[in-house]
Amino acid sequence: MKSKHLFIGVFLLAVVVRFLLNFSIELIPGAGGGYSIVQIREIIEEGHLAMSDMPLVFYFNSLVVKIIISIFPNCPMDNLIINVYKIIDCIALPLLLIPLYRIQKDIFKYSYSKIFLAAVAGFAVLSYAPIELASDAQKNSIGLVFMTAFIYSFLKYLKGRSVKDLLLSVTMLILTGLAHFGTFTLSVCFLLLALVLFYRWKAIIPVIGLGITAVLLIAVFDPSRAKEMLTFWLNSFSVFLSPRLLYYPHGIFNYISAFVIIWFIIRILRKNKAALITYDRRILLLFMIFIAILAFPFFRFEYGRRLGLMLFVPQSIVLFVLYPYFSKRAALIIAYFVLALTVFTATIRVASPKPLAITGESYSDLMKIKDELKDPDTTIIFVRHGLEWWLIWEFRVKIAQPHIQVNEELVSKYDHIFFLIQKKGENDFYPGRSSPFRKPQAPEAAVLVYDSGYFEMYELGED
User: Fold this and answer.
1) What pLDDT, on a 0 to 100 scale, did the predictor assign at position 242?
2) Which of 62, 247, 249, 328 has the fewest CB atoms within 10 Å, i.e. the most exposed one?
3) Residues 140, 348: contact at Cβ < 8 Å?
4) Does pTM surpass 0.90?
5) Closest C-alpha to 253, from 128, 408, 394
């Protein structure tokens, strides 16, 4: 079997697995399941995003929906949005195998064993992290596809100095930025590291120019995220290891696998110092530093969790780089271990797909509060993270996070201010004993207007 056919087989398997995960329930699984479809519907109905964000994924989804509606005008809009979103999500992340295939074929060109290729390809699209990104993280998934394509084209440029590869890498970097803020930030970080390692002091001006350009690109679409690029270091780090990152197996795997890979790279750099060509040595250093950043153990929980979910991309690529330095036996052991780990995690997730943000019973109960929402246009509801998008999707109301203060401006802007508190029926997606996100608390002046086994809802200023 040719390596191309092997990658195609893994791609088709990944699409099938994601199809099973996405269509396991009627709505969108995951804590942020409703966010993207709210954005897509707003574009279709109003011509713009509901909330500031990187726009590419939402506009692409809305374009597909509009094309289908133009052909079948009687399609129910909301169901069509959900199904189009799911189908795109099934295909999106497995496309990462295209640049990954080109990396091993065009750049490193080693005679990889088929079992090793199958293991790396499977790990890249079917291990814990890529499957965890299914459904409610389509922006992230598509951003990672563009990021991998960027890494491929830029590594190829560094090797051959082709203008075509340079232009392709710039294009992929821009598409990454238009798709997802987090993967764009990582791509810029990778590029800055590469420029410093390959060009040393000559990289000073390009690094400064790239940094300014990256911030300006993000600021065009989301000024708050542009500010975060400049100030993230103020609240990203912790003095101690985040206990939550150690509560679940993937967090532990990230630290152990990163340590092992970094150890391998250091060992290879020391043992093969004289034999290594400059390009290979710098590539090894580049990925060693990049993986160390993503697996840095002193990030606060949410930063560490999100970066950990993207670590599989550089890990997959660096396995291709390290392959010729493994003995045949070591390469075989690593391949079978990675393959077994991937099959195990994929099987577990398929057997127990990611659920909706709340249970089906509590979602049905949530629909009953509609009777209390007399004027959605002038209504705002304080609600926990994960539930807010479904309130917008079902009731077209405004939402507020629990940390927002009720002030005179808010009171004057909205005729109805509600506080929705969930008693039970919440599906927890975060490691640890409780959710890391705050839940709303009704002020003393609020009046109870809805009470069931699943929810309490209070209104401020209700007589």
Assistant:
1) 66
2) 328
3) no
4) yes
5) 128
